[in-house]
Design brief:
Elements lengths: L4 E12 L2 E12 L3 E5 L6 H8 L7 E6 L2 E2 L10 E4 L11 H11 L8 H8 L15 H13 L5 E5 L7 H16 L3 E5 L3 H7 L2 E6 L2 E7 H7 L3 E7 L2 H10 L4 E3 L4 E2 L2 E2 L1 E5 L1 H13 L4 E6 L3 H9 L16 H4 L36
Parallel strand pairs: 3-8, 3-9, 6-7, 7-8
Antiparallel strand pairs: 1-2, 1-4, 4-5, 9-10, 11-15, 11-16, 12-15, 13-14
The chain binds adenosine-5'-triphosphate.
The site of adenosine-5'-triphosphate (ATP) has 17 residues, from strand 2 and helix 1.
InterPro entries: AAA+_ATPase, ABC_transporter-like_ATP-bd, ABC_transporter-like_CS, P-loop_NTPase
Protein name: ABC transporter ATP-binding protein
Keywords: ATP-binding, Nucleotide-binding, Transport
Length: about 350
């Protein structure tokens, strides 16, 4: 019987010289699941994704991909597609030609009927015949995803696929990933964008300096995590404040301030106390117009578990946005097998005519 797990990792370790990139990592990813990897820069996300793509081999532990143990040979396991450090593409070819070339490299023939469909799925039909050296980062990311789609993968592995995507591009990419998952493909992706992870993933794994500090359903973070701050907009802020102050386990954070032109209340507590407060508001005829965490449960857990800030935001303070500041320092580095040929070349890059090392498999 086929295993229900697309990825099963037990005790995975990986070092680069003295640097311990992964340290005893256990991970299960079910088929049909979109699983997010999150962690600070250097946490080991790319290294772990590279192991799944067969770009490097673990030093220790057991890794099974789609039910088959991965050995030390550097090759993408059957049924796996994706990329780390951006897709490998030929800058001097058009988008369509790139896909045809990759299909030909895989022995699929350059006339693969799925090419037009894949381009449409990622929203690149209009630029299908443009050379990709003029493509933005987001367009390259989408083309990399289209290349992966051509193989009908059962496991799709993507390193920061949302990088550089505009809202339309993000909509296309999210749509494709959710469709694939609904059809049974497992998707493992890394991101620094908590909002993307929350929109896409049913489960997340938080890595910190090579170790897993949380792995499981997103809902578990919300339910199990410490007290959160919630912004509450109601039809009667004064009554809401009194009710919140009277609700056991709920604290009113002073200076909720204005929120989109209305007087907001910020309350702090666990989910059961919040439920109690909402019931009291309803009972007293106070309409709840908006209720949302000031910092999302995932972001709060990320900050708490990875050594970031572990307290809810102070009254009136801007919510911390690790997701947005953590972007800057992404490093492109070689793993055991080279895998990121030409992501951001200049027009005249001497690499332009080289063959891409097949990152989108
Ligand atoms: N080929 C390599 N040679 C040397 N060190 C490496 C190599 N690949 C990764 N590392 C190191 O291993 C650690 C984990 O790196 P990795 O790229 O997996 O982290 P990451 O979580 O993907 O980070 P980021 O969010 O910045 O992309 C880092 O300390 C990194 O410097």
């Amino acid at each position: 019987m086929e295993t229900a797990l697309a990825v099963r990792a037990r005790g995975i370790s990986k070092c680069f010289g003295d640097v311990v990139a992964l340290d005893g990592v256990d991970l299960d990813v079910a088929r049909g699941q979109v699983h997010g990897l999150v962690g600070p820069n250097g946490a080991g996300k790319t290294t772990l994704l590279g192991l799944m793509l067969g770009l490097s081999a673990a030093d220790g532990g057991v890794l099974e991909i789609l039910g088959t143990p991965v050995g030390r040979a550097l090759a993408a396991p059957d049924g796996v597609a994706g990329f780390v450090d951006g897709p490998g593409l030929y800058p001097s070819l058009t988008a369509r030609q790139n896909l045809a070339a990759l299909a030909a490299l895989r022995g699929q023939g350059s006339g693969t009927p799925g090419i037009d469909r894949a381009l449409a799925e990622v929203g690149l039909t209009d630029v299908a015949d443009d050379r990709i050296r003029g493509f933005s980062l987001g367009m390259r990311q989408r083309l990399g995803l289209a290349a992966a789609l051509l193989t009908s993968p059962r496991l799709l592995v993507l390193d920061e696929p949302a990088n550089g995507l505009d809202p339309a591009g993000k909509k296309h990419v999210h749509g494709v990933l959710l469709r694939l998952a609904a059809e049974g493909t497992a998707v493992v992706l890394s991101s620094h964008r908590m909002d993307d992870l929350e929109a896409l993933c049913s489960e997340v794994t938080i890595l910190s300096t090579g170790r897993i500090v949380f792995s499981g359903p997103l809902g578990k973070l919300a339910a199990e995590n410490r007290e959160l701050d919630y912004r509450l907009l109601t039809s009667d802020p004064r009554a809401a404040r009194e009710l919140a102050a009277a609700t056991p386990g709920m604290r009113v954070v002073e200076h909720g301030g204005q929120w989109r032109g209305a007087e907001a209340l910020v309350v702090r507590g666990l989910v059961p106390a919040l439920d109690d407060l909402v019931a009291r508001l309803v009972r007293d005829g106070v309409a709840v117009r908006e209720l949302a965490p000031v910092v999302s449960p995932l972001e709060a857990a990320f900050l708490a578990l990875t050594g970031g800030r572990d307290e809810p935001a102070e009254p009136g303070e801007q919510a911390p946005h690790a997701a947005h500041t953590a972007h800057a320092a992404h490093t492109t580095h070689a793993t055991d097998a080279a895998h990121a040929p030409q992501n951001h070349q200049d027009e005249d890059s001497p690499q332009d005519e080289q063959e891409p090392q097949e990152a989108a498999r």
